Amino acid sequence: MSRVAYVEGQYLPHRRAAVHIEDRGYQFSDGVYEVIAVEGGRLIDEESHLDRLERSLRELRIAPPLSRRSLTIVMREVVRRNRVVNGILYIQATRGTAPREHAFPAQNKTALVMTARQTDLHRERLAQDGVTVITIPDIRWRRCDIKSVSLLPNVLGKQAAQEAGAFEAWQIDRDGFITEGTSTNAWIVGRDGLLITRSTDTAILGGITRLSVLDLARRNGVEFVERPFTVGEAKAAREAFLTSTTSLVLPVVRIDDAVVGNGKPGSLTLKIRDLYLAHMAGAPAPHLG
Ligand code: PDD
Question: 25: exposed, middle or buried (C-beta count within 10 Å: 0-12, 13-18, 19+)?
Answer without folding.
Answer: buried
